């Protein structure tokens, strides 16, 4: 059988696939739609990351494909309804990058609360901004609010609690009676209560109609003044212009955005000069270790599905 890999995959996992099937591994193919459409009809399985849009013209071209492997957990780049209608199994790497994302959330929250780590150039050239940088905040004792409480949210909660944070979570798909709340020591709450009380708000929800622009001007204004916002979930959940305005006004004390409505992010005037802002290029779940876990898991499951 033939497997098409359109984006980066860890080398040992690619070799594992090649030991059993014919594999076309071209991690830049996602940027060459004519060649991608030419290769698609010949493959029995396709493996993608978040940039390959398995929908529309490409999905129609996957004439004999039975399996879509997703090197990650978000599925908004895949037409799940059409895949189901056509009997195509979709395999995400559930849980394999959870630790990387959870560490990103806690690390950026600590950086933004402390606000002291951009002083290297000043200190190296003889400036001594000790007074300006002595008003940072500690993570311990702060409240972490998780909007979404799946596997990544739960691991983030455990890391936050280990550092002395109080943790609350809102998840419309998980009733307050779910035993996972008691098991993790996390308080189930409404979104309104979470926004009003959390010092750090971290998003762990899919991009669907009900979450699109969920964090708009109104909800950002409802957050605790000076709170930190971290989005490693999906672009489109957060209104980017509203976030920039909230940072400039001081309503937000800081923000870390790893995902954007359009990726790659184009030069954006509303982010230019924003205070206490961290922007990263959708790498929250990408580390050496997570790439190995994600690739290994997807390779194993794709091979199982094709057996």
Properties at a glance:
307 residues; Rossmann fold; 2 domains; 12 helices; 16% strand
Provide a quick synopsis of the model.
The chain is α/β, with parallel strands linked by helices. Helices cover about 35% and strands about 15% of the residues.
Q: If you had to describe this structure to a student in words, what would you say it looks like?
A:
36% of the residues lie in helices and 16% in strands. With 307 residues, it is α/β, with parallel strands linked by helices. The strands form two sheets. The chain has a seven-stranded parallel sheet with strand order 8-7-6-9-10-11-12, with helices on both faces. Strands 2-1-3-4-5 form a five-stranded parallel sheet. Helix 1 (11-18) runs parallel beside helix 12 and helix 5 crosses helix 7 (151-162). It is globular, with a radius of gyration of 21 Å. The protein starts with a strand and ends with a helix.
CATH class of the largest domain: Alpha Beta
CATH superfamily of the largest domain: NAD(P)-binding Rossmann-like Domain
Helix content range of the residues, please? 25-40%
SSE run: EHEHEHEHEHHEHEHEHEHEHEEH
Q: Looking at the structure, what is the overall shape? A: globular
Strand content: 15-25%
The average pLDDT score comes to 96
Say how many strands there are: 12
- Class computed from helices, strands and strand pairing: alpha/beta
């Amino acid at each position: 059988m033939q497997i098409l890999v359109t984006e980066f995959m860890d080398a040992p996992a690619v070799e594992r696939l090649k030991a059993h099937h014919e594999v076309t591994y071209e991690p830049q193919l996602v940027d060459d739609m004519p060649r991608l459409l030419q290769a698609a009809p010949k493959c029995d399985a396709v493996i993608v990351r978040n940039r390959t849009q398995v929908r529309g013209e490409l999905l129609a071209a996957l004439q004999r494909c039975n399996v879509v492997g997703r090197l990650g957990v978000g599925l908004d780049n895949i037409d799940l309804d059409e895949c189901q209608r056509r009997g195509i199994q979709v395999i995400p790497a559930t849980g394999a990058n959870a630790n990387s994302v959870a560490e990103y959330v806690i690390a950026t929250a600590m950086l933004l609360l402390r606000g002291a780590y951009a002083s290297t150039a000043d200190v190296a050239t003889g400036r001594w901004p000790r007074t300006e940088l002595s008003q940072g905040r500690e993570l311990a004792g702060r409240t972490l609010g998780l909007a979404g409480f799946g596997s990544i949210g739960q691991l983030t909660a455990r890391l936050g609690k280990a550092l002395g944070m109080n943790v609350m979570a809102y998840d419309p798909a998980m009733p307050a009676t779910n035993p996972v709340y008691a098991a993790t020591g996390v308080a189930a709450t409404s979104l309104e209560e979470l926004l009003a009380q959390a010092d750090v708000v971290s998003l762990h929800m899919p991009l669907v109609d009900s979450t699109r622009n969920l964090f708009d001007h109104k909800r950002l204004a409802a957050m605790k003044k000076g709170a930190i916002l971290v989005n490693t979930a999906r672009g489109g959940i957060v209104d980017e212009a509203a976030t920039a305005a909230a940072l400039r006004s001081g309503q937000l004390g800081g923000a870390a955005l790893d995902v954007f409505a359009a990726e790659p992010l184009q030069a954006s005037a509303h982010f230019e000069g924003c205070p206490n802002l961290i922007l990263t290029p959708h790498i929250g779940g990408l580390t050496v270790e997570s790439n190995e876990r994600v690739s290994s898991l997807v390779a194993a499951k794709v091979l199982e599905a094709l057996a």
